[in-house]
Design brief:
By secondary structure, the chain is of the alpha+beta class. It is built from 10 helices and 16 strands.
């Protein structure tokens, strides 16, 4: 071992790289710990957890570099990377996704943030290309339940709305639609179903004072009473930010500094806002007795986050059970993350998970085949 760790002296660049690697390991450890740290008290841990899988991948590359250089520091990188293997399966899965021949009766559930059907682009070109693609996709999938976030409901022709048109197209007579708080009534969250609802409700009302919330319906699915949630947690609201700064000028440097503060503030408020929303959501879920749960939606947070672990603690994740490859659901202008989910109680089992990588929105839709859990006691 001593002979192996006998590298030539590090140059200045490598000393800098070593120092940066220590900083990276610190961020990775903070990301690991984020699941236990509420952002309300310690929001910096949530910040570290957001790009955790990217940090881990960079550390893997650095580990090989230190291994080639035979630097003892490689041991620390190796330990961190081994710990990271417990988190990698939340963003990447190797499992087979074939449909079982003997599988029981199933239902198909879809969740999709439709990004208001790219309404801004429609205003520019006068076309409904995104909406038409999404409608065609949903029709072809022929799901039993569809949960949509950022649904834009407008009058297509006299007496007929976008929602009416979609219901008719999908042959789903049952719908629960609620407007986002504080903005136009055209912006809505929607649950569509082929099965009737027994009860409907909203989890996050005026208590939070935010435009995002969670809606739910009680219904019978596969002879099981189910509370189906459609949730959309607080976003970072950075889509319209100016990310280009000319740092060659004093004005550009000042703008960059101000932009950094603004970004940090947005992230902090989003992490804290989601923590408060999740607390109310958990309260609602904990009140259910002898009732199964299917929870769909856009968390705006990764599977290493505190928000995810709080919600998923008593539920199964369809991607972890039957996903394949990278689970990235966000396809907007920023780094790829898995932020959309289908979770469910032990009463159900996922038999197929599909991430439809078709460019229709800034999110990819998810479809899941759920059946009764054969080993449920």
């Amino acid at each position: 071992m001593t002979k192996f760790f006998n590298p030539r002296p590090l140059n200045y660049f490598e000393w800098f790289l070593l120092l940066a690697n220590w900083g990276l390991i610190l961020l990775i450890l903070m990301g690991f710990m984020a699941r236990w740290m509420s952002p309300i008290q310690q929001w910096a841990f949530a910040f570290a957890a957001l790009p955790l899988h990217y940090f881990w991948f960079i550390n893997v590359l650095l580990m090989f570099y230190w291994l080639i250089r035979r630097v003892p520091f490689v041991i620390f990188s190796l330990i961190i990377n081994l710990l990271g293997l417990f988190y990698v399966n939340k963003v990447y899965r190797f499992e087979d996704n074939e449909i079982r021949v003997d599988q029981p009766k199933t239902i198909k559930v879809i969740t999709f943030n439709v990004h208001i059907f790219d309404q801004y682009q429609k205003l520019l070109d006068g076309k409904y290309e995104a909406r038409n693609k999404i409608f065609d996709f949903l029709k072809a999938e022929n799901a039993d339940v569809v949960c949509l976030q950022e649904f834009f409901n407008q009058e297509i022709r006299k007496g007929v709305s976008t929602q009416d048109s979609l219901q008719k197209l999908l042959k789903m007579p049952y719908v629960f639609s609620v407007k986002y708080k504080g903005i136009s009534k055209k912006y809505r969250m929607v649950i569509l179903s082929k099965q009737p609802f027994m009860k409907e409700g909203v989890v996050l009302p005026d208590t939070i004072g935010d435009e995002n919330f969670a809606i739910w319906v009680d219904m019978m699915l596969l002879n099981q009473k189910v509370r189906l949630y459609n949730i959309h947690l607080k976003s970072f609201r950075i889509s319209n930010e100016n990310l280009e700064y000319d740092v060659s000028t004093d004005e550009g440097k000042s703008s960059l500094k101000e932009g950094g503060r603004r970004f940090a503030s947005k992230f902090k408020h989003a992490f804290i806002g989601r923590a408060k929303q999740v607390a109310l959501l958990k309260d609602d879920m904990d009140q259910l007795e002898d009732q199964s749960i299917i929870l769909c939606g856009d968390f705006n947070d990764t599977p290493t986050s505190w928000a995810y672990y709080q919600i998923q603690s008593d539920l199964n994740d369809a991607f972890i059970e039957k996903g394949q490859g990278f689970g990235t659901t966000y396809n907007g202008p920023y780094p790829a993350f898995r932020i959309d989910y289908v979770l469910y109680s032990e009463a159900f089992k996922a038999y197929q998970f599909n991430l439809h990588k078709e460019k229709m929105s800034d999110h990819y839709p998810i479809s899941v085949l759920l059946g009764r859990n054969e080993i449920e006691k």
